[in-house]
Design brief:
Layout lengths: L4 H22 L4 E4 L10 E4 L3 E6 L9 E6 L9 H32 L6 H32 L18 E4 L2 H20 L13
Antiparallel strand pairs: 1-2, 1-5, 2-3, 3-4
Helix pairs in contact: 1-2, 1-3, 1-4, 2-3, 3-4
């Protein structure tokens, strides 16, 4: 047990990192667009996520009331940029890999705290560590790619039915990207801690 403090921390960090990965995948504000035409987008702000784009409009409701309209991206929509499709796939993979890593780490810690000393403990930590790292890398790629798109104010050719301009006046990073960055840091730390486990030497005593 005294050798597994870092691995216990790896489980805690990995759990938080996996939760943040899941949260970032569900958030709609990956990219915050500021638009000058407020005829439909009343607030002048739209949120572009990896699954849908949303904005607030007063157009179809009574004065003084607001309603949020969202348009979901459909599979194989040609206008959706590559970084958004990559984020969809890679974050789903990251969530699955993180769950496998957590499961392997739980089994290893269970054996340790139950006093079961065998070589499978190190193997479980090895599997958990690699999967934590792979999960972190799967989050890092879409987060970095979308951050690059925001920094260069890249446009998206939305169809007319979306009531969205193809280019914003300006855009900024939404909450999902910093949440994803924190998830990456925690998952990579968790993987490093899991891989640092050293099995205690098991001595065999021969009775004569």
């Amino acid at each position: 047990v005294s050798r597994s403090h870092l691995q216990l921390a790896a489980f805690a960090l990995g759990t938080v990192g996996w939760i943040l990965c899941t949260i970032s995948m569900g958030l709609v504000d990956w990219r915050v667009w500021h638009v000058d035409n407020t005829t439909v987008i009343s607030s002048g702000v739209a949120w572009v996520g990896i699954w849908k784009v949303c904005f607030i409009s007063y157009l179809h409701v009574s004065p003084g009331y607001k309603e949020q309209f969202c348009h979901k991206f459909k599979a194989f929509d040609s206008f959706v940029p590559h970084e958004i499709y990559a984020a969809q796939g890679l974050l789903l993979i990251a969530m699955i890999l993180g769950l496998v890593a957590l499961t392997a780490t739980i089994f290893a810690l269970r054996n340790i705290y139950m006093g079961i000393a065998d070589k499978t403990i190190a193997r479980f930590f090895l599997v958990g560590g690699f999967f934590f790292i792979f999960s972190g890398l799967c989050v890092l790629i879409p987060v970095s790619w979308n951050f690059y798109s925001v920094a260069h104010n890249e446009s998206i050719a939305f169809p007319p039915s979306y009531h969205m301009p193809s280019s914003p006046v300006s855009q900024e990073v939404g909450a999902a990207i910093p949440v994803g960055i924190i998830a990456v840091i925690l998952l990579l730390l968790s993987g490093t801690f899991s891989l640092s486990y050293i099995s205690p030497a098991i001595s065999n005593t021969i009775m004569q």
